[in-house]
Amino acid sequence: MALSTQTRIARSIGRSKRDVFLRADFADLGSPSRVTRALSELISEGKLVRLGYGVYAKAVPSPVTGNPIPRKVLESLVVEAFDSLRIPVELGIARSAYATGSTGQVPMSVTVSTGSRRVSRKLKLGNREVIYEKPLPRAS
């Protein structure tokens, strides 16, 4: 008996140690329309959350509301997503300053630096959208 596209995708996600998946990861499991339908069903079942066009993350039920939330924080999901897309990113200036302890102010936005590369992909979770920043010009 042949397994449905949704079942095959769900198994693939369950076996994977990764938390972020691209739509292209499932291209060999069915036609584009079937993959789209299967991903939509997995989102409605609460097994995935959509971060952006063709970018999905594993989800678990929130202990507070019961709504699906990602298993990791948005910052780590963004780094993993760009790693899957083969786009090198670094933490933004404010996040780096907080991580190194040079400031005590917790950055509220998710900011990443893509270097000189222009990125137009929008990634967001709920009302939190990823902001791209360019590196500061070097003082000469």
Give structural notes.
There is one protein chain. With 140 residues, this protein is α+β, with helices and mostly antiparallel strands. The protein folds into 2 domains: 1-72, Arc Repressor Mutant, subunit A (Orthogonal Bundle), CATH 1.10.10; 73-140, no CATH class. It has helices at 5-15, 32-44, 74-84, 93-100; strands spanning 20-22, 48-52, 55-61, 68-70, 90-91, 110-113, 124-125, 128-133. A hairpin with a 2-residue loop joins strand 7 (124-125) and strand 8 (128-133). Helix 1 packs across helix 2. It starts with a helix and ends in a 7-residue tail after the last strand. The relative contact order is 0.13.
Amino-to-carboxy terminus distance: 68 Å
Helical segment count:
4
Parts with pLDDT < 50 across at least 5 consecutive residues: none
The overall average pLDDT, rounded, is 84
Oligomer: single chain
Class by SSE composition: alpha+beta
Domain count: the total is 2
The CATH topology name of the largest domain reads Arc Repressor Mutant, subunit A
Question: Main beta sheet, described?
Answer: 4 strands, antiparallel
Query: How many β-strand runs?
Result: 8
Name of the top-level CATH class of the largest domain: Mainly Alpha
The percent range for helix content is 25-40%
What coarse outline follows from CA principal-axis ratios?
A: globular
The H/E string reads HEHEEEHEHEEE
Write the CATH architecture name of the largest domain.
Answer: Orthogonal Bundle
